[in-house]
Specification:
The protein is an alpha/beta fold and about 300 residues long. The protein is about 40% helix and about 20% strand. It has a five-stranded mixed β-sheet, sandwiched between helices.
Length: about 300
């Protein structure tokens, strides 16, 4: 098995076609087919099922290609670093669910590192896109949460994408609302009290699922739910319609402002904040520093 054969197989999967992949690789279709077949024979498994409409990746093929993509990405880094002796900017990217504290941690990292040396990127986005970005090496890691409700589904999703979840800390659940909300100054809030107000939730797009929601208790029978696609809109709706959302209680007033507060929810449920990364892959130095910055929020978890 060679790097070239792995590159061929990955390209075929991306194109869903031997012919299109051959064109992209600037080689003949028979030569590509033979190379892929030789790889399958060596592995004693089918990576693709061929038919008149193209190719379909098998379950075993999906697992093989997940490792193959990681290997190709690492090979690319090694080639640039040791063969081409790449002297361009180092890159660091992180994806996350809509967490202001995770954005704030990113801001602190940018402040500490020379931006002339690094190219930074941050994506505050949908849950499945966090997973996709890490799987496809768009981001080095992704920040999201697990709980009893979504754990089984999320574990399967991460396994299918050859990713792993690393827990950081557990949080109790809080109702997040503006400080003029009728319930804002309660010492504790029940779900029944929240029923009279709109529940605000982040839109998850075409991969919408209760198990991919960024909020707790997505299966609760709310009277009204309003979906939004960005944090600024959610904050505006908290004031405009007395909406609320459920969160970890870790908030950044520097980013969200002073008009909002977190009130404990009357529940024993907890959520685990953590990060996802490719299985077996070590974080970069800056990635480890980012995790250290996230861990500083452990002491800020509200009780």
């Amino acid at each position: 098995m060679t790097i070239q054969q792995i590159r061929y197989a990955v390209t075929v999967a991306e194109c869903n076609s031997m012919n299109k992949a051959a064109e992209k690789l600037f080689m003949s279709q028979p030569s590509l087919s033979n190379a892929v077949r030789e790889l399958e024979d060596e592995l004693n498994m089918e990576i693709f099922i061929r038919n008149n409409r193209g190719v379909t990746v098998t379950d075993a093929g999906n697992e093989f290609l997940a490792y193959g993509r990681q290997l190709l990405e690492q090979y690319k880094y090694m080639w640039e670093r040791f063969v081409e002796k790449e002297t361009g900017k180092k890159k660091f990217s992180v994806s996350m669910q809509h967490y202001s504290f995770a954005v704030k941690a990113f801001v602190e990292i940018v402040k500490k590192f020379d931006t002339g040396e690094y190219e930074f990127a941050v994506y505050e986005t949908k849950t499945y896109e966090v997973i996709e970005n890490v799987k496809n090496f768009i981001s080095e890691l992704g920040v999201l949460f697990k709980n009893q409700f979504n754990e089984r589904f999320l574990n399967k999703c991460l396994q299918d994408n050859n990713l792993e979840f690393v827990s950081l800390f557990d949080c109790h659940i809080y109702a997040y609302l503006w400080n003029g909300h009728p319930l804002a100054h309660n010492k504790i809030i029940t779900m029944e009290e929240l029923l009279d107000y709109p529940c605000l939730a982040f839109e998850q797009g075409k991969n919408n699922s209760l198990y991919l929601s960024e909020e707790m208790f997505t299966d609760f029978p709310y009277k009204r739910t309003i979906k939004v696609n960005d944090r600024a809109t959610m904050l505006n709706l908290m004031i405009g319609v007395n909406g609320f959302t459920l969160c970890s209680g870790i908030i950044s007033k520097e980013l969200n402002g002073d008009n909002y507060m977190a009130v404990p929810l009357d529940t024993d449920e907890v959520m685990t904040i953590g990060y996802v990364k490719p299985k077996g892959m070590r974080l970069s130095v800056i990635g480890e520093k980012y995790i250290e910055e996230l861990m500083t929020y452990k002491s800020m978890v509200l009780r």
